[in-house]
């Protein structure tokens, strides 16, 4: 049986990624309507998978590693090129230390703050994510609900708005000493821990397929799930 022809958008997108990095991309059919775009050099490896559903392309997982260790997705074609062409600079810029702020007494916290801490701590424990949990203050009108490991942290802010306390978006997420941008919910954080945990030295990536369920337009490097939205 002759090999399946590469879908036009897959071929075009592979060229866009290759041009951004300066490496020829390799396209491979994985079976069951799945296609993989790969870029490799001596130290950096990347692939992004797509599943073809009729006329739509759905993201089906990504890997970006430097020296065999998971690296976060880039925010621009320029950052992606840096991962490949200047990996030492990229690693240095990407490193984020986990700093635990001074703890605040849970007994002093409003009920919604204490409830948010206990609820999310229970969710992490149920997922076997072992993290130190605590509250801290952010000024006079905000609390930070934090979860910390040696290499990762999750921080959520609860701020006073008028006469009530409101749970805001996730304000900071560090995973394996890498700042992860664009993650706004605990559900997305859990996906990182579930899918981004290294398996044989690689990671499935940190983003979910929540915005690629359509036919892509011409130059959509940012929606590749290799470059973060």
**Number of DSSP E strands:** 10
Uncertain runs are: 197-224
* Largest sheet: spatial strand order: 1-2-3-4-5
What is the count of helical runs?
5
Mean pLDDT: 80
The computed structural class is alpha+beta
Radius of gyration: 20 Å
Number of domains: 2
Proportion in β-strands: 25-35%
Report helical residue fraction.
10-25%
Q: What is the approximate shape?
A: elongated
Write down the secondary-structure element order: HEEEEEHHHEEEEEH
Distance between the termini: 38 Å
Major sheet description: 5 strands, antiparallel
In terms of topology, how is this protein built?
Layout: H1 8-21, E1 26-31, E2 34-40, E3 44-53, E4 56-66, E5 69-70, H2 77-85, H3 87-94, H4 111-126, E6 132-137, E7 142-148, E8 153-161, E9 164-175, E10 178-179, H5 186-195
Antiparallel strand pairs: 1-2, 2-3, 3-4, 4-5, 6-7, 7-8, 8-9, 9-10
Helix pairs in contact: 2-3
Question: What does this 3D model show about the protein?
Answer:
The protein is of the alpha+beta class. It folds into two domains: about 110 residues, no CATH class; about 70 residues, Nuclear Transport Factor 2, Chain: A (Roll), CATH 3.10.450. The protein contains five helices and ten strands, in the order H-E-E-E-E-E-H-H-H-E-E-E-E-E-H. A five-stranded antiparallel sheet has the order 1-2-3-4-5, covered by helices on one side. A five-stranded antiparallel sheet has the order 6-7-8-9-10, covered by helices on one side. The protein is elongated.
């Amino acid at each position: 049986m002759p090999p399946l022809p590469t879908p036009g958008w897959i071929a075009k997108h592979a060229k866009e990624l290759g041009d951004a990095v300066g490496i020829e991309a390799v396209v491979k059919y994985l079976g069951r309507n799945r296609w993989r775009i790969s870029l490799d050099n001596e130290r950096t490896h990347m692939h992004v998978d797509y599943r073809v559903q009729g006329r739509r392309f759905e993201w089906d997982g990504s890997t970006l590693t430097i020296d065999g260790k998971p690296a976060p997705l880039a925010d621009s074609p320029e950052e992606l090129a840096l991962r490949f062409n200047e990996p030492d600079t990229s690693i240095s810029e990407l490193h984020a230390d986990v700093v635990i702020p001074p703890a605040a007494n849970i007994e002093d916290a409003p009920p919604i703050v204490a409830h948010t801490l206990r609820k999310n701590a229970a969710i992490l424990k149920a997922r076997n994510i072992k993290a130190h949990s605590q509250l801290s203050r952010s000024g006079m009108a905000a609390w930070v609900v934090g979860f910390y490991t040696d290499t990762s942290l999750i921080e959520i802010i609860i701020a006073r708005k008028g006469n009530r306390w409101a749970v805001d978006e996730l304000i900071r997420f560090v995973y394996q000493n890498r700042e992860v941008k664009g993650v706004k919910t605990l559900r997305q954080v859990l996906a990182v821990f579930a899918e981004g945990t290294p398996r044989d030295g690689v990671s499935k990536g940190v983003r979910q397929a929540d915005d690629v369920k359509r036919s892509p337009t011409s130059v959509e490097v940012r929606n590749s799930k290799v470059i973060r939205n």
